[in-house]
Each structure stands twice: as C-alpha cells, then as structure tokens.
Amino acid sequence: MDAMSECRRVLARSGSTFALAFRLLPPAQRDAMTAFYAYCREVDDAVDGVAPRAARAAVGEWRRRVAAVYEGVPEDPVSQALAWAARRFGIRREHLELVLDGVESDIGASSPQGFQDLYEYCYRVASSVGLVCVTVLGDTSEDACRYAELTGVAVQLTNILRDVGEDAAMGRVYLPAEDLKAFGVRQGDVLGRRMTPALRRLLAFEARRAGHFYDLGRAALPSRSRRRLFFAEALRDTYRALLDRLEGMGFPVFDRRVGVGTGRKVAIALRHRLHPATWLAPWGAV
To answer: Interior CA angle at 168 toward 166 and 169, to 5°?
Structure first.
C-alpha cells in the first residue's frame, strides 16, 4: 500500500464527512488535504486515552516525524504523503507544528483563565488547519491568512460549545474562568452536567462571540479570493450552520450531540462549488 493510499484509508476509517467534502477538490489538492487530515487524525489517536507522560512522548515522536518531513527522510506512510504535500503546495512547517502545540496544550490542561488564553488555544488547534487549507487552495496572501485565523477561532469556539457535555464528562471545561465568574456559573455545574439559567446565558454569550469571529473572517476575505477558497468557505458555512442550530435548539449540550445533516452539508458544499458568489447569502441559507 502506497503512502497516499494509507492516508485515504485513515480518512475512510474515521467516518468523517470531510471525505465527502474533499471530493469537490481537484485531485492534487484532494490528496494534499487527505494527507493533512491523516496527519491530524494520527496525532489525535496517538494521545487519545493515554497517560500524560505517554501522550507527551507521542507528541515528541510526531515532532521528530515533522522534522523528517522537512529535513530528512520520512519513514511512515502518513509522513511520506505529508512530505509530498508540503513540497507540492508549500505547506509551512510552523503550521504543522502548531497542530502539535495544540494537542500538547490539551495534555493535563486546566480551564483557560481568560479569553486570550482560549484564543491562543483555538489558534493552535483550528487556525492552524485553516492556514494549511488556504495554502493548499493557493492563496497565502495576508488577507487569506487573516481569514483563516479568524475563521479557525470561530470554528473551534463552535466545537467547544457543541462539546460542553462531552468535555465535562472527561473532566474538562474550555469556557474561560473569567466568563464563568461574570455569569455566576459554578464550574461544578458544568462538570456535573447541570444546565442552569446562568449557564444557558453564558453559552448564548459565547455563541455571539463565535458569530462575531465568523463575521470578522468573512469581512477579511477579499472578493478576488472567494472562488479560489470555495472549499474553505463551504466548511465555514457548515460550522456556522452548526452554531445556528445550537442556538436555535437552546444549547442541549448535556442531552445530545448536535450536528448538521449530511444533506445540508452537501447542499452548502455544492452551493459554494457551483456558485461561489452566493457566499454573501444570509447565514444558513442553502
């Protein structure tokens, strides 16, 4: 099995809806994004459910592999595919290392104290993905990178809101401590999976904050980049639809995992692929 085939296997095994979205890309870009996805998946799997010491060792091993992508001879199939993608599209080493920084910051981490702490975490784990995405799509302008940063923060805030219940079950709270205090929410209520009126108000506030970053990202993207970045735009609109759904349902984060249906994801992707100019349509319009 060649290196790219292994990456495709990782993507298929994950059951991710990205497998469907990637089909909209031209073959070379599709393979590069598949290699990057496999890298992120393999890193996550390496630290998932293991003791902190072993998790840090796993991150260290991946740092060695990333170094080999740029400085040596990569040995494992995912690193080999990643090396091809980095050469073909100019993916920057620092963006791959940001992913590792984000994973490492999650190991034994405490709740963020303020929003700046949370922003830095979102930048590492999600803006890094956006920066790789716009690079593969062929736009590394300052505007496109700013768009990737802001949109990545919005996407990760959306993920945090969706996963409040799941994270609490693992003893994690990603909502900033200063926000909990401002809204009169006890961390014990979050960890105990108790939806109080104060917590619901806090989640609504964090949703408005995420929406603000979606809007900032949209404003940062110049019109000349819309068609080239259609894939990133489709992902952004999918996550914004998820945020809207969470808000519309009143944040049932302790009762169920809220998602966006496959049909709607496909419709959003096709809308951006076939009619990129419609990106200015109201959020949620499909």
So the answer is: 65
